[in-house]
């Protein structure tokens, strides 16, 4: 089976599994795979197909079907101006809140912007009239495509039916390469293309009755994995379930503080891999989480809103905004006890390495800061290295209100976000950021004399540049000649002078005791600078990993 035929068959099958009962088609060459798949589904009585020779007519026919049935209706076109003829119907669907699905066939990317026939810009054609847009990669015979394709169809249905607000039009753009007609002479597809909606991703759409994601059975090896600031992490852990958070121990006393280190230990995971993972929110920080969630042997359920959830592998079984009542976890199971024991061993090993490190090592700084914050504090953490240092080094503690700009995970506006949090939240407020993040939003500290001023302490881990890059591939010794200029990017800025000019108070600390005293002094905007190093960060992370591995070897 050729790739274009494969994706067309899967998409039509998943649309039907998601409740689509009608489809409208305008003929063409590039959309031939979709035409053939829809024709077969119609012949089998699985969908009712409507063929129209004018795309503008087809668009409004689909609009009427969707408006009356209150179900998403796809309209399928070939490439070029055929898609543009749908624009009036898309605009009407936008303003009327009608779940219209545009399935537009397109040329592969290598045929765009080179003068190829029947090519226009279909990516930006409908502008902000769409609730959602996704372009499928040109299909190829790669295992795992089936699940990813089906998952994206489910996501598009969620957007069309109002999961992000009002219902409205969505567009799935398909880059289809020749051959475009079914060809049984080609090699078999490398995986089964069969499946129903419940075999891939079922999304609890707005307005539907749902009890939420099922809690684990007593005999189920189930692990919860939470994003950095998810409010359920501490609650679920306190009920006796195994929970790993991107924030490590800062997420709560019962959360597995060394959890991310356990996930990264291949030997431990080979023996203690969960059969099921319940994802809380959208964790994006750690590669070991990606490895776990893309393991085909692991069942993945997601507690998140029907849009925006993480679905890299397309293998989430179900997405729901709610979780069933907690009950009590099976804290006495052999498997869960092994995880708890491993967490204690790993945490002890991490503590020994960090105790031997100075506060100029940013993981040590993060651990000290989290431990020193008063009860009920708000902690806003910057992207890049600080958020990772907290998750990998913080010990267990309670009653922190965590926050981070993890939607797009940029360093933009972090000072201003922290100031806004401090102005709106109860309790003392602190921010933990890197020097580049701090410098990126210096104007956030510019507050007019008549404006409300927050009580906020900003702790800056100043390693004079981009510390995170030393821990990534770019930090390998093979790239040393270019590293400092294009990744390390030293700036040599005097934070004391900058902060003074902006009217905030400043302190520089060099020891944990000095940090504790500085944290205890509050009033207005205060900046605490800690000079940290980055040339040894990669080695320290290696030490932490080795220490955990040695500790777990005796488990």
TrEMBL record:
The entry's keywords: Magnesium, Manganese, Menaquinone biosynthesis, Metal-binding, Thiamine pyrophosphate, Transferase
Name this polypeptide is given: 2-succinyl-5-enolpyruvyl-6-hydroxy-3-cyclohexene-1-carboxylate synthase
Note on how the cofactor is bound: Binds 1 thiamine pyrophosphate per subunit.
Annotated gene: menD
Biological pathway: Quinol/quinone metabolism; 1,4-dihydroxy-2-naphthoate biosynthesis; 1,4-dihydroxy-2-naphthoate from chorismate: step 2/7; Quinol/quinone metabolism; menaquinone biosynthesis
Family: Belongs to the TPP enzyme family. MenD subfamily.
Stored SUPFAM superfamilies: Thiamin diphosphate-binding fold (THDP-binding) (SSF52518)
Residue ranges occupied by any Thiamine pyrophosphate enzyme N-terminal TPP-binding domain in the UniProt entry: 7-124
SUBUNIT field: Homodimer.
All residue ranges annotated as the Thiamine pyrophosphate enzyme TPP-binding domain in the record: 415-521
Reaction catalysed by this enzyme: isochorismate + 2-oxoglutarate + H(+) = 5-enolpyruvoyl-6-hydroxy-2-succinyl-cyclohex-3-ene-1-carboxylate + CO2
Gene3D superfamilies according to UniProt: 3.40.50.970, TPP-binding domain
GO molecular function, one term: magnesium ion binding
GO process terms (BP): menaquinone biosynthetic process
Pfam families recorded: TPP_enzyme_C, TPP_enzyme_N
InterPro entries linked: MenaQ_synth_MenD, THDP-binding, Thiamin_PyroP_enz_TPP-bd_dom, TPP_enzyme_TPP-bd
Cofactor(s) the protein requires to work: thiamine diphosphate; Mg(2+); Mn(2+)
Known function: Catalyzes the thiamine diphosphate-dependent decarboxylation of 2-oxoglutarate and the subsequent addition of the resulting succinic semialdehyde-thiamine pyrophosphate anion to isochorismate to yield 2-succinyl-5-enolpyruvyl-6-hydroxy-3-cyclohexene-1-carboxylate (SEPHCHC).
EC number: 2.2.1.9
Source organism: Nakamurella antarctica
Entry keyword Magnesium: yes
